[in-house]
Amino acid sequence: MTSRLLNLAPALSPQRWALARGSRLLGLVLTGVLLSACAVGPDYQRPELAVPQQFNAVDGWTQANPSDALERGAWWELYADPQLNALVAKLNSNNQSVAQAEAQFRQAQALVRNARGAFLPSADLSVGKTRSSQGTGSSNSSLTSSSSGIRDTLNAQVGVSWEADVWGKLRRGLEANEASAEASYADLAAMRLSQQSELVQNYLQLRVIDQQKRLLEATVEAYERSLKMSENQYRAGISGKDAVAQAQTQLRNTQASLIDLIWQRAQFENAIAVLTGQPPTGFKLAEINDIPKLPAIPVSVPSQLLERRPDIASAERSIIAANANIGVAKAAYYPDFSLSLSGGYSSSQYQDWISVPNRFWSVGPKISLPLFDGGQRSAEVDRNEAVYDQTVAKYRQTVLDGFREVENYRIQLKVLGDETVVQEQALESARESLRLTTNQYKAGLIAYLDVVNVQTTALSTERSVLNLLQSRLIASVQLIAALGGGWDGKMEVSER
């Protein structure tokens, strides 16, 4: 290169020859810097986390890599209720909380595109006209015409600038934005799963209330017959007035319980309307005779919990973003290298404005390095390192909470299942006791008070069985959500 400059020297003026040599030397320096460029700051390493090999309630757990992007499927279809499936479909398209999370994800995607655009040169075009005036410096200037010293300038200019990502500031920024976008996508999945879980729980509770309503309606009819029978026996002189009063009290209490179910059902109905993006006014769900069946929950694994829980995935990707931001902050210690190019035409007249004599151009590299900032860069690095530590702690806590939830719901399902077996046996005994007691009363062997006590016990036991079923259905939904929503066909299913 030096020999080529020496050969050109006779044809160049000393000033131009020095400028050409300096530009080439600077070009060599920049090329060397760019070839050796590296991204400052720490590379991401997943935080260490003590993960149990198995849940307390289940054997056969294994480790795997997190992958929340796995297809979960329509897990709500496990409950085999067409109306529930239709409601979840409306939620997926109309739920406003999901719409907010989806809009936030699109914002994060736009930031990624913006970060990628920073790697490319930026160009702008400006066209304008300016009018300027300069004093004549003469004491008689006031005698001149008002247009004296006024000059119009027409400018048309194209500028191009490019920043060299020598220290990886732009790359770390892109890394942070991509991780944030992935975390936002996981937040969207978490919001959708949360809203789906809430809808399914509300729907199942509403269907249990429908069953309780049918039970109370049948009980009211039975109590009305008992009241009529007591009144007939009183008129016949077989029983006293107290039996009629007891029958009336029992009937009215049951009717009050039936009325109480109306507002409870309305609350769940209104919640479902809002979850599906509809106003509660005018929204109705007709009663059906069947309660959705309790699905069989598969034996899952801790690794699949990590794979499927979007909140855990979001927490980890927030760590990646925080880690990359440390690199962005540290890159501020190093000089910025940029190259700018501009050119255009400038004239005082429209005529021949765009012509060779009126053109101008400039090109040159630029290096900028802050020499003193009062500790601002150091403080920004410390702040980003503290944010990283915060996200690590949040990630670990999210994982721990996930395992706690799964443990709780599995134990709850197991205990409720055992309790249901015993409660159903108690219900059979209560029904048999009611049948025998009613027969004894009809035969005049016992007082009506004995019948009332047995009827109250039987109704309470019936409602306890329904409440247990409701609790098991809700716990099943919560467990599915705690596992990240559904499972694939390769997982073993355990019948309970």
From TrEMBL:
One of its GO terms (molecular function) is efflux transmembrane transporter activity. The keyword Transferase does not apply. Residues 126-149 are annotated as: Disordered. Its main location: membrane. Residues 84-118, 206-233 form a coiled coil. It is a lipid-anchor. Residues 130-149 have a biased composition (Low complexity). It is found in: Cell outer membrane. InterPro entries: MdtP/NodT-like, OMP_efflux. GO terms for cellular component: cell outer membrane. Keywords: Cell outer membrane, Coiled coil, Lipoprotein, Membrane, Palmitate, Transmembrane, Transmembrane beta strand. Belongs to the outer membrane factor (OMF) (TC 1.B.17) family. This is Efflux transporter outer membrane subunit.
